[in-house]
Amino acid sequence: MPSTATLSVRVARKAQEATDICTFELLGVDGAALPSFSAGSHVDVHLPGGLTRQYSLCNDPSETHRYLIAVLRDPATRGGSEAMHQQVQEGQVLQISAPRNHFGLAHDARRSLLLAGGIGVTPILCMAERLALTGAEFAMHYCTRSRDRAAFLQRITASRYASRVQLHFDDGAADQKLDLVALLTDPQAGVHLYVCGPKGFMDAVLKTARERGWPESQLHYEFFGAEVARSDSDAGFEVQLASSGRVIAVARDQTVTQALSAAGVEVMTSCEQGVCGTCLTRVLSGVPDHKDMYLTPEEQAANDQFTPCCSRAKTARLVLDL
Q1: What residues pair up with 15 in beta bridges, in sequence order?
Q2: 169-to-16, 119, 162 alpha-carbon distances in Å
Q3: Which of 106, 137, 144, 193 has the highest local Cβ count within 10 Å?
Q4: Which tens digits make up the pLDDT trace of 113-123?
Q5: Has residue 185 got a pLDDT over 80?
Q6: CATH value of 7-96 in 3.30.413.10, 2.40.30.10, 3.40.50.10540, 3.40.50.1820
């Protein structure tokens, strides 16, 4: 179970990075060094109103005095991005988690292919800078709706790895748009693919890669958000707590975490969309109905863990390691 301890940080600087994207520079309130992190890491930010959201760290991991995050103002927000843009101001103190990394670089990769869509550039940028620093072989493709919506363009074009980055704008000429089929047609041993961005972009990348024969072990991805799939076949079921034998009913219009909470059993949650893994729980018996974007297809097939914030059950009962 992840630690509930939080860090107090002060918003030292809030800046407009691109259209609808703000960056936030976070410093430890006492001036002490912040916990170290690696490329691909994120922190949970506790926001006004009780919301918690995950944001990737996009500064140099060698910097121990600050964290830098970037937040897209999403018109379809569930409150998180609106709170960051409208309510969080310079000088404000926030509570955040220590960095966690579910999207780390594969150290044995012969070459890395980095694909970023929109705000998904935040972890990808950190990866590119790390790979450039270590002299590793990589290429990066950065897709946005338009140039004015591309965060960190100046930072990228001024970097020593700028020649390895290709920019693709939806409103640009046809010959500069990303050709996924051509890019992913010939998977090679030791070449690892990393993708982050809007769900539609990521779905297209992963679908194309899988159709072209990319092994799952060479595919790495992180979803920022997902719409939990509802089905007319969703039905009520039971969960049993292995520690006490207690059985709790989950109604068809309830999530497991909602049913547990109503029964006085709290499971730590964050995104509530099955993308962050905070609520990941071991399943000792029964078959989950996976609706998350966090577990790999192989991990889902093992049926020994699930995300109770959104996933359900295919069997009448799940026995949980709670």
Answers
A1: 23
A2: 20, 14, 17
A3: 144
A4: 999 999 999 99
A5: yes
A6: 2.40.30.10
